[in-house]
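Mods, move this if it's the wrong board.
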Amino acid sequence: MPEDSRFTFGLIADVTTVLESHGYHRPDDASGNRALGSAVATLARLCADYEGRDVTDNTADHYGEEPTA
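Not the wrong board. Structure tokens:
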């Protein structure tokens, strides 16, 4: 998790609930875990972007996503 105490499992669950309520569904197979990890990394970047903060590529390491080159 990032150092920001506002980025919690509750936030992830809330966003997941919103996506599901709008008809977006995570795969039920093994790729679903990878999809969730990628979505969490994207959510972290979205939160930083929303507040105008910079996010470095190594932030993705904390969410199980490979950093971009």
